[in-house]
Specification:
The protein is an alpha/beta fold and 369 residues long. It has 14 helices and 15 strands.
Length: 369
């Protein structure tokens, strides 16, 4: 414990997530926060409820890593699931009891639902939701969020607009804090790149098939003949993407990458065709490296990142023709791409890791008062 202007702030932080192995945005944010807070002298432990795929290599020398389960929960309810959950809760309680109470940050609602069944006396709790309130309602998570987070010390949305809407929905403890960039790229992307990149999960809410339809429109119009489309990711729409590629020129389907900047440095335009989003980390990373975007107008976070059009083009979501038009407008105008890229990189300075960590420390002081 340390005293800061009369306010006693615990230096122990536990970050709890559904899993800590996925390449998704929430997991990456947990890792960035863990490393950043540890570098500032906090005693940090990150905890995943269950494993997912291959275990991610964490910087264990700077923070502790725990998983509550060795195998995922079974899909069907029953005695096995109940037994595994009881064991997971015992392990979580043991982790919490291994030192003085501090601050518990739950990155996802399912993780919070586990924490609620533990003894949290003495702990300050901060709950997060890493998407928009619209996404919560669409995914049928809103009622769970309202139940799980109603009594936490602070609930964090990603934008002020979403915080206001969560408050209107009944969470009087709602505030907002954006996610940080993992790193600041020292160099900008190749300005000569003629590649449109999609980087993310291949699933319905991300709408990669809308991008494939847009690319078909572009090809049928005979435009962007010197441009390529790279689809980088995996997910349930793999097969559909592969089928759509068979008669489309200049399209590649590539495996997910651990370091997005490897792909983004050779990208000319980022395509974000999503139907729902929060504050997409991949969009932040693209803008930080000077890559402008064409994105669907699907969340307050996307509008905030694109600064209402100063850092990229917004198009109607689910509209392949509008997406095709936006891609052509940006691809065919080198000066516009360069200007939006410069403005995007400048705009992302506000999301640098150290600036966001400053805000986290201010939040810790606030919840400890």
């Amino acid at each position: 414990m340390v005293s800061n202007g009369g306010c006693v702030v615990s230096k122990r932080v536990v970050l709890l997530a559904n899993n800590i192995d996925e390449l998704g945005g929430a997991q990456r944010v947990v890792q960035v926060l863990a490393g950043g807070l540890a570098s500032r002298g906090y005693d940090v432990t990150i905890v995943g409820v269950e494993p997912l795929g291959e275990r991610t290599a964490h910087v264990a020398s700077t923070y502790q890593v725990e998983r509550l389960l060795e195998t995922p929960y079974p899909k069907q309810a029953g005695a096995e699931l109940d037994s595994l959950r009881a064991g997971a809760l015992r392990k979580l309680q043991a982790i919490l009891d291994a030192g003085e109470p501090g601050i518990l940050v739950t990155a996802q609602v399912w993780a919070m639902e586990h924490a609620l069944d533990c003894d949290l006396v003495g702990w300050r709790t901060i709950g997060q939701f890493h998407s928009s309130i619209e996404a919560a309602a669409f995914g049928k998570d809103l009622d769970r969020i309202l139940r799980a987070y109603r009594d936490v010390d602070q609930f964090l949305a990603l934008t002020s607009v979403d915080a206001m809407r969560f408050t209107q929905a009944g969470l009087n403890n709602a505030s907002w804090l954006p996610n940080p960039l993992a790193q600041w790229p020292s160099e900008v992307a190749n300005p000569q790149s003629r590649t449109v990149t999609y980087l993310g999960r291949l699933s319905a809410e991300k709408a990669p098939m809308t991008l494939m339809q847009a690319w078909r429109i572009i090809c049928e119009q005979g435009r962007l003949g010197d441009w390529n489309l790279n689809i980088i990711g995996s997910g349930p729409h793999d097969v559909q993407i592969q089928a759509a590629m068979t008669d489309l020129p200049r399209v590649q389907l590539l495996a997910p990458v651990a370091d997005p900047y490897v792909a983004l440095k050779e990208t000319g335009i980022l395509a974000v065709p999503s139907l729902i989003e929060g504050l997409p980390l991949v969009l932040m990373e693209a803008l930080a490296i000077g890559v402008p975007a064409v994105a669907s107008d699907c969340s307050a976070g996307v509008r905030e990142l694109l600064d209402e059009g100063r850092c990229g083009l917004l198009v109607n979501r689910g509209d392949a023709a509008a997406l095709a038009s936006g891609l052509c407008e940006l691809a065919e105008n080198d000066e516009l791409r360069a200007r939006l890229g410069r403005q995007g990189r400048e705009h992302m300075l506000a999301y640098e890791r150290e600036r966001i960590l400053d805000q986290w420390e201010q939040l810790f002081e606030s919840v400890n008062r």
